[in-house]
Amino acid sequence: MAAAAAVLRAAVRRCRPAAGALLHHRPIPSARSLPSSPPLGRGLPPLPPLPFSAGFGYSTASEELVGPKVKAKARKNPMKQSRFDFTKVDAALLPTVILVGRPNVGKSALFNRFIRRREALVYNTPGDHVTRDIREGIAKLGDLRFRVLDSAGLETAATSGSILARTADMTGNVLARSQFAIFLIDVRDGLQPLDLEVGQWLRKHASGIHTLVAMNKSESLDEHGVLTAAAGEAHKLGFGDPVAISAETGLGMAELYEVLRPLFEEYMSQLPNNGLNQADPTTELETEAHEGDESKLPLQLAIVGRPNVGKSTLLNTLLQEQRVLVGPEAGLTRDSIRAQFQFDNRTVYLVDTAGWMERSGKEKGPASLSVVQSRKNLMRAHIVALVLDAEKIAKSKSSMNHPEVVIARQAIEEGRGLVVVVNKMDLLRDNQRLFEKVMDAVPREIQTVIPQVTGIPVVFVSALEGRGRIAVMRQVIDTYENWCLRLSTSRLNRWLRKVMSRHSWKDSATQPKVKYFTQVKARPPTFVAFMSGKVQLSDTDIRFLTKSLKEDFNIGGIPIRIVQRSIPRKASAKSNTRKVGPRVARMRTDKRVTVSDPSLS
Question: Where does the record place the GTPase Der C-terminal KH-domain-like domain (predicted)?
Fold first, then answer.
């Protein structure tokens, strides 16, 4: 075995120089010419680069061989950092970018890419418009932060008064508060005549805005001259060099960052103090004071209802600006538009949802997506404003139809506060008798249809005339403060003793014994009744306690939850005492004395 191993080692030593010479095209050296024991890493000349080393990934100590790998890594270097910290800039002072273009070029998809969540509806409808309103969000691109606006598709040939003409007017109004614009084109379709018309419209209405052309949907195109030809066509728009991107896959976001970074830095340098927030001690003290008060946190308000009841008009009235598209057409709103405003030093987030319809299974395209999105926004809201049509109530002699009852009950089941807004009261002004009848009948009928919650506030407004705006917000804030209410345990137990004494029990022997009553959470208020004994509170008793809570603490219009917990009885005295055996009477003896002094015995 030892001889065979020695022969094998000698063969391996003879083969090494032969293989190296064969690869590097050198003559095979003889055994005599080889040094006896060359030092490791010294005495050998550098190997020339192989023609196939880059392809197969060979690596040696030579720098020439690893050169292509270093270059490949250099192309993947991270993006350069901006010299401004945009996270410390006030949101109102961030640069504003509006996304414009003809319909179905991917503006909403790029908006979702910027804000990093699927908020805008995206659907492939070449012959229709999905986005009709202006949507706003805070975009994140690397370390850049900016406000981004998603606009409706522009069609310059739209007839006056049509939906497309109204969306174009709304986009033109929003351009006044934008500093930059990203003009999107579909690179797969090439430059269309409508793209040229949109470019002319931008030069006319946005002459003072820096416009950047982005060739979207470029992920499926190769680099063999196709993108170069498309970029040559995009130069006809007259807005400089375009950027090839893909809003769906994220392709080209690094190149877009390199283009936007110097523009944003120049904009920020022109702001006083570079737009950074100043430390305001008054604001900090107020923030610290409100940290433990949940009612001072931002309020999420969702406006829901059937189609064409005036939800978008109510949102414009609350914001006091034309933020969303309104009109006589039913189902005009598709996206759930989110807007922020201040009311009485309180931040309020408004969400205008699409018209709530019964699911028939026949919804297709954007309509089906709108229904799903409306239900999601209902779950996220704190307070739900259910909008009713006063004219339809007067004609049908019924305050709420089945879809509206479903909305109200689902809001209550999800633990949300509910405010009912009866809109279009201006249409009943000429008929005073009908006007008063509606105002009297609606609260009573709502209480009958939704018996789970008492004291639901009802506000009568005219959103078209702007009447009732303050009343709506007052009721919303009052309901929100009740929704965030917290009561101390001592106060609740004092209240419980009074309530239990005035409640008529059928049999005092079977009366449930509530040990103590406490609140475990708010939003909505949730209470726990700790019971002593086997007798539990019946449904009638729980309804009595719920009604008493709402009446005594004035917390109507919100759902209240009461949970029962049983306290195990204390173990009996027999089980608690240790078992001790019979005592053995022991006599005191002195054995030592007995043994040591036998004379005493």
Answer: 486-565
Residue that the structure tokens 């400089």 belong to: 240
- Asked whether residue 579 is assigned to any structural domain, the reply reads no
Is residue 377 one of the residues assigned to a domain? yes
Sheet holding 347-352, edge to edge: 337-342, 347-352, 299-305, 383-389, 417-423, 458-460
Please report, as a single letter, which amino acid is at residue 164. Answer: L
At residue 39's C-alpha, the angle toward residues 36 and 44, to 5°, is 90
- Read off the CATH number of the domain in which 181 is found: 3.40.50.300
Question: Are 545 and 519 contacting, i.e. CB atoms less than 8 angstroms apart?
Answer: no
- Rounded-to-integer distance, Cα 499 and Cα 368, Å: 49
**Spatial contact of 182 and 99, defined as CB atoms under 8 Å apart:** yes
Specify if 543 maps to a domain: yes
Q: Token pair for residue 529?
A: 């009744």
CA distance 518 to 530: 8
Q: If we measure between CA atoms, which residue out of 145, 146, 144 comes closest to residue 82?
A: 144
Task: Tell me the per-residue pLDDT of 86-122, one tens digit each, with 9 for 90 and over.
Answer: 988 988 899 999 999 988 888 889 999 999 988 876 6
Question: How far is Cα 145 from Cα 16, in angstroms, rounded to an integer?
Answer: 60
Q: What is the pLDDT of residues 315-342, one digit of tens each?
A: 999 999 888 887 777 667 766 788 888 9
- Amino acid letter, residue 425: M
Distance from C-alpha of 315 to C-alpha of 338, rounded to nearest angstrom: 10
DSSP 506-569: S-GGG--EEEEEEEEETTTTEEEEEEESS----HHHHHHHHHHHHHHHT-TTS--EEEEEEEPP
Alpha-carbon span 234 to 237, nearest angstrom: 6
Amino acid (one-letter) located at 347:
T
Centre a 10 Å sphere on the Cβ of residue 522 and count the other Cβ atoms it contains: 15
Measured between alpha carbons, how far is residue 173 from residues 89, 201, 205, 313, 367 in Å?
Answer: 25, 13, 9, 18, 27
CA distances (Å), origin 303, targets 105, 375, 476: 30, 12, 11
Strand 526-532 to 383-389 pairing: unpaired
| Joined tokens for residue 382 | 């704190």
- Which stretch of 372-376, 411-415, 474-478 has the lowest confidence by average pLDDT? 372-376
What b/e readout covers 390-408, taking b as 16+ CB neighbours within 10 angstroms? bbebbeeeebbeebbeebb
Residue 524, both tokens: 């909505």
Domain that holds residue 387: 299-327+336-355+371-484
Between vectors from CA 202 to CA 197 and to CA 208, what angle results, nearest 5°? 160
- Work out the end-to-end distance of the chain between its first and last CA atoms, rounded to an integer number of angstroms: 98
Confidence of residue 287 (pLDDT cuts 50, 70, 90): very low
Give yes or no: residues 166 and 256 share one domain. yes
Q: How many CA atoms lie within 13 A of 346 on its CB side?
A: 22
Residue 201: inside a domain: yes
pTM score of the predicted model: 0.72
Instruction: Verify that 380 and 458 share a domain, yes or no.
Output: yes
Question: Each residue of 193-217: pLDDT tens digit?
Answer: 999 999 998 998 888 899 999 999 9
Residue 301 backbone phi and psi in degrees, to 5: -120, 120
